[in-house]
Amino acid sequence: MALSGLAGTVVDVEAHIAAGLPAMAVSGLPDKACGQAPDRIRSAASASGTTVPARRIVVNLSPASIPKQGSMFDLSIAVAVLAAAGDIRSGLVADIVHIGELGLDGSIRSVRGVLPCVMAAARAGVTAVVVPVDNVAEARLVSGVRVSAARTLGELLLWYAAHRDTGAPLPLAPAPSATAEPVRRAVDLADVVGQPEARLAVEMAASGGHHMLLSGPPGVGKTMLAERLVTVLPPLSRALALESHAIRSLAGVRVAGDLDCTPPYESPHHSASVAAIVGGGSGQVLPGAISRAHGGVLFLDEAAEFKTSVLQTLRQPLESGVVTVARARESVTFPARFLLVLAANPCPCGKAWGKGAHCTCSALDLRRYHNKMSGPLMDRIDIRVTVPPVPRGAFGDQRGESSATVAGRVLTARAAQAERWRSLRVGLNGQVPGHVLRRAPYRLPSTVTGVLDRALDEGNLSLRGYDRVLRLAWTAADMAGRSVPSRQDVGLALGLRAGEMAA
Which pTM value belongs to this model? Predict the structure, then answer.
């Protein structure tokens, strides 16, 4: 399988043996790692009790016009060469996809991207694959494909020999043994002390799929709120969870068990590069943080400390839900539908807050700090909340609502949205095209949108911002159980957009 992003192409590996000086050449646009396969294959074959013929061998990876990257072609090239040499029946292996890297001792080692490879193979009509033992868990997630796994090349040769003699099929890979899951710190929205406005903003962001900015001094709970946003999101659907796992598999994160439907959470450091956030790489194009957060949350803590170039690259994916990484020889598209949560301090030193503020930042520092988050980026943020310091009196307050309670309301609100927008094939208010909300039958009367219309006429709101406030108003109505937004819902949405809680 040759991967380009999550898309894959079935590669026919052809081998021809002819008289001549001993040599093995690989054609079909292999990269350096793939082109070094002959040396690994000769050693692996010798360690497995067989030999590669000491003749001239030409291996072709067809279609030859598609670049072949990585060491995952080792096993398929070895099988093709040994089939050409007569050690394996050619007809038996013609319709089986082989994926794996060969060690010099004949072992079949794990590689990245097995899940998207098997998914692409299934779409192409392939029904049988051979993968490394360490990649069995992710390969078994794809239905309709018979998965076999061998530890060594010698073991695979014995299976093919048994099939030739007795007709026995390749054995199915057993389910991977249960491994102890890493201990994860349990988080719950009930851990957040006070902050009723911020908690409401988190619930609205989860209900309608709205991006959010949390601003306030250090230590008030911005990171806690962002971490707990994932706990109130509904589980991923099977299709979305498979896509999320495929992205992580391509990024080198091994799937260790069953399909995990928990929404992903990505929180890159503010020193991350554009390639780390968007995707890229010098060889194979790998997914970045925005794609690994697909279906979940991307949290940028200390957002104003990120490079301006990094923040600007978020603008297009926030609108389209995909990111395309263009290179000279190929363009790779990854899904990137995520909830963006930004957190920022009032100033670089974080002390510009309250009556006793002791800010030491210069005017130039403040201007540079706030200009990092440009107008076009902020125009795509639906909810802007100021998170104030928690007063001492809140410490004794009753424990807040748990994530399970809030998640139940989020699920109810999302069910109403899914029913309303079924004909548009979108499931969330945050994804509805703006023109739909400005036309019948969803256009709101002017008595409801009056304050919003004035903000647009006075230039305080862009047309994109107008549409986003409407989406947020529909979410507020869904959370309240109303079928149509009221004037109060529009006022609340506009207040959240402006960073002020409006009644």
Answer: 0.89
